[in-house]
Amino acid sequence: MSPVADPTLRHERALGRAGAELVIGVDEVGRGALAGPVAVGMCVIDPRRPGVFPVGLRDSKLLSEARREVLAPLASAWVRASAVGLASAEEVDRLGIIACLGLAGKRALGQLHAAGTDVLRSVVLLDGSHDWLSPSLTTPLSITTRVKADRDCASVAAASVVAKVHRDRLMIELDNVTPGYGWASNKGYGSSAHFDAIELLGATDHHRRTWLKSERMIAQPS
């Protein structure tokens, strides 16, 4: 198997040549988890003067937890601005996961705007082929999608690492508050131990109950 190539700034530079003043790389984390929020990370770069991104930066899924912890502050220092927006498990149950990706993304954009990023003059670069962000916005933005942008585009790889570390830390904190589900290790995803804990202890307010019902995993009251 050939090694995975490191991300580059080729695509972001091309967007700059096409007129983008800023590029906002975007990636989501926690879409498939059974517990905890879904998170959308955003990292802003100037595509004409992007600087040098951290050595070893990659899609968060290709990095160990220890490497992500090292790279997250380096990625945040490299970019002009970064933000992570969240949508809760209750919102996922009520609105659906795609709508919550948009909601979390809208919240991240709000953070960037409050910090001084001109989002209206930026091009938003989404990982994947589906624009889930536009339906959540009242003001249209310039949004482009790219399959495997988290692997190939440094701004999106940075967003994936920043979002992953942010959400992982939240899940570790929740594990301290609500122990028994192994969230410090499984981060809310559906490990065997997590399913066993749900059967034994029942679901919490941090679980996506509609998802658990589909798995027929919510413990019935005695």
From TrEMBL:
<keyword id="KW-0540">Nuclease</keyword>
<keyword id="KW-0963">Cytoplasm</keyword>
<keyword id="KW-0378">Hydrolase</keyword>
<keyword id="KW-0255">Endonuclease</keyword>
<dbReference type="GO" id="GO:0004523">
    <property type="term" value="F:RNA-DNA hybrid ribonuclease activity"/>
</dbReference>
<dbReference type="InterPro" id="IPR012337">
    <property type="entry name" value="RNaseH-like_sf"/>
</dbReference>
<dbReference type="InterPro" id="IPR036397">
    <property type="entry name" value="RNaseH_sf"/>
</dbReference>
<feature type="binding site">
    <location>
        <position position="28"/>
    </location>
    <ligand>
        <name>a divalent metal cation</name>
    </ligand>
</feature>
<dbReference type="InterPro" id="IPR001352">
    <property type="entry name" value="RNase_HII/HIII"/>
</dbReference>
<feature type="domain" description="RNase H type-2">
    <location>
        <begin position="21"/>
        <end position="222"/>
    </location>
</feature>
<dbReference type="InterPro" id="IPR024567">
    <property type="entry name" value="RNase_HII/HIII_dom"/>
</dbReference>
<feature type="binding site">
    <location>
        <position position="27"/>
    </location>
    <ligand>
        <name>a divalent metal cation</name>
    </ligand>
</feature>
<dbReference type="Pfam" id="PF01351">
    <property type="entry name" value="RNase_HII"/>
</dbReference>
<dbReference type="InterPro" id="IPR022898">
    <property type="entry name" value="RNase_HII"/>
</dbReference>
<comment type="similarity">
    <text>Belongs to the RNase HII family.</text>
</comment>
<feature type="binding site">
    <location>
        <position position="127"/>
    </location>
    <ligand>
        <name>a divalent metal cation</name>
    </ligand>
</feature>
<protein>
    <recommendedName>
        <fullName>Ribonuclease</fullName>
        <ecNumber>3.1.26.4</ecNumber>
    </recommendedName>
</protein>
<keyword id="KW-0464">Manganese</keyword>
<keyword id="KW-0479">Metal-binding</keyword>
<comment type="function">
    <text>Endonuclease that specifically degrades the RNA of RNA-DNA hybrids.</text>
</comment>
